[in-house]
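User: Please predict the structure of the protein below. I'd like the answer in structure-token form so I can feed it into my own downstream comparison script.

Assistant: Understood. Taking the following sequence of 971 residues as input:
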Amino acid sequence: MAASQFSASCSSRAGAFFQYDSRSKFIDFTCGSSKSKLFLVRTPNRRSFSIRSVSSEPTQKLKDPIADEEASTTLSSLTTDAASVASSIKYHAEFTPLFSPERFDLPKAFFATAQSVRDSLIINWNATYDYYEKLNVKQAYYLSMEFLQGRALLNAIGNLELTGAYAEALSKLGHKLEQIASQEPDAALGNGGLGRLASCFLDSLATLNYPAWGYGLRYRYGLFKQRITKDGQEEVAEDWLELGNPWEIVRNDVAYPVKFYGKIVTGSDGKRHWIGGEDIRAVAHDVPIPGYKTKTTINLRLWSTKAPSAEFDLNSFNAGEHTKAYEALGNAEKICYVLYPGDESIEGKVLRLKQQYTLCSASLQDIIARFERRSGASVKWEEFPEKVAVQMNDTHPTLCIPELMRILVDLKGLSWKEAWNITQRTVAYTNHTVLPEALEKWSLELMQKLLPRHVEIIELIDEELIRTIISEYGTADSELLEKKLKELRILENVDLPAAFADLLVKPKEVEPVVEVPSEEIQNVEEVVPSEEIQNVEDVESVDEEDKFEEEGPQEEEPVLPEPVPEPPKLVRMANLCVVGGHAVNGVAEIHSEIVKEEVFNSFFQLWPEKFQNKTNGVTPRRWIRFCNPDLSKIITNWIGTEEWVLKTEKLAELRKFADNEDLHTQWRAAKRSNKLKVVSFLKEKTGYSVSLDALFDIQVKRIHEYKRQLLNILGIVYRYKKMKELSVSERKEKFIPRVCIFGGKAFATYVQAKRIVKFITDVGATVNHDPEIGDLLKVIFVPDYNVSVAELLIPASELSQHISTAGMEASGTSNMKFAMNGCILIGTLDGANVEIREEVGEDNFFLFGARAHEIADLRKERAEGKFVPDPRFEEVKEFVRSGVFGPYNYDELIGSLEGNEGFGRADYFLVGKDFPSYIECQEEVDEAYRDQKKWTRMSILNTAGSYKFSSDRTIHEYAKDIWNIQPVELP
């Protein structure tokens, strides 16, 4: 067959020439003086092709696991030469244009570079997908409302081992790789640790070759972009999709109907049918997730929402009723506008519930479609849990349980018993919090309107649970049974179903008739004095009219007490998760114990086998190897291998070099290099100049009262006050220089958290401009904290604050990232701090504060008015009230730390209780930092002790203990 030829221009203006030979399936591509081969890849059983650059070396074909299947044609290795990479980038700049052709500036160069990387990812993604399809392996599906990915370019080329090739190629094209990477916006798909954990898990799943996918929502505006003004935090819409997303692949052929509202009818077949209502479509957008040094590339499937074109009311539009015409389309699209829309209004609550159901419904429909396709002609539903594991990341995806039941019973025709057995064996739940507001409860009334069929199913599940409770505890002890029903039921403040209506009915108490013995009474007059009645009959006829005459007219009607409002009827989502799943896990040892002993104690007593611990972890690829290359080289040189990137237990080998002076010198040099980058970054972002020789003290995380940024800033205020009371020489002798860095977002409607942000910025404005203090103390709030900022700050950190009220932080993951990068932690015994301290050594962790088991008694002490605050705490509060930090009124903020009871009062998070311990611990920090040899040793031992906190270890545990899946490595 004759070769087909065509020509086009390329960005070098030298002209591009393609020659395609259909027999060899190669395209010869010439652009100027650069020549390379492109390989046309055909995916088996799919009418699609991918083009990729290849070297002249022979290619290897992917082994087909099914002997009689058509041989799969793909590449076993990626091109690594810079010339081919440069050609691929030029190709995308020319033929996948998102920008005008005149210039090859940074934004255009980034998109062309990302698209060239995506080509390689698509090849591996297709190969991975096809291999899983053919083997029909059991697959895990991770459902999360958040995936906080960060930038993808450096991570992708790092995992593909193409960093050098891309750096060289871009250099030839006139750009630096670091400059190109900086053009990428962070994907606005998450907010905090929940989403970052999910992204770390996907990295580990791909790296370890586990068959798994992630499912989430494609938020157009994310949470919000944070600006810091004179008034504190300001929220504006995030613009991460403004120029498009080069990593995602829109799957227009993968879309599923999602229904809201409507009604339930019983059909002639006796089955319940959900009809009518509002219909939308969820459309898949795929983001390939590459593993490190493996061909395995898994998928993050994100759903966007839209309405069918038929829903656009053309007649109304032409009549000038434009808003009405677009209403259905707008209602559908807004579901994926914002992460966690404000839920103060009914509309906000409805939108949040719509988001959660969209995630669950679309994902389960997709999972089931894949199961049916892989099953072929004979679908055996009893095998569904043998092929599918669904993990709910916190309570947001709880509706997976009734949705899976609905699909199996209503659409697939299974009996209730069969469907319930399948559901319980398929679904598992990760709990991330002990905070009541995060253990979601939804209004039963709202849910009945929005998801009527799901409420029916939840009611039936609640009945199943009631039967289990009765079977376990019996009916003899009605008080115990009532207590267990109240604690365990999914429906709160809802009457028992009719079948159990008489279960807790207490017999009416009948007043006993007191008989007066005849010998104690001679006649009626002894009971009622004779002067008050005329005869026996009058005992029963004392008239109200007589009473009125005696007492006179009543001036006012008696005031009746106001009726007590009925408590709201609620659906307890966390309870539904525990009931509907086969496993429940906490995310740190102390947290899992609190889950068993407090949060779900009654469930633990009922089903102890369900409860597990899975301490969180973070990927060492992004959080050491890629974000801290200087430290990574040192670790590799001293350990003698780079295997620690995959086997973090090798980090422990650093312990034997902890006192080596040569290592100390290199270690400090790497830290200083990272600090230098942060000095430049802070100057650019905030305008503040900081000293490279100061201790970098960092607290970056979501702004919340329990995380106690308020304790940190009050400690800084106390430090500043004491500095002002000393002479210049005394200050320098007593205090080491510090740069105190904060970062994080306060939820838009969380007023107290926003006050804390305002307070931090006000303190910074005062301290940073005080000439008496100079470089001895700086306070900086970094705006719009995200993963990319974390990748810069964490390697430069020397002290990191993880100071939550004990027992309130489930785990934390930033504490692990800081420890991995040789940062020393100051913190309470909370979350993963407990395990980190055990691994790095007690002497290498600055510990303060009350313990988790003491918190309840301390709050009780406060409520009883017995707490006596430390004089230093009272001193710092008065200093704030003096107005030294500006005219803003901080009475509400400081008032939250005072009083003995009441909402927003009484120092619920024990800032005052832990304050003296905290400032004394900070004095220990100063003392330790003065001895740089000691500090460096502590830093090395923190990195060495962080080996346990890799997400690879966590994923192995999930795979073995919860999902029962095995690694599947592509040949």
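That's the full token string. Residues 106-135 form the longest helix (30 residues).
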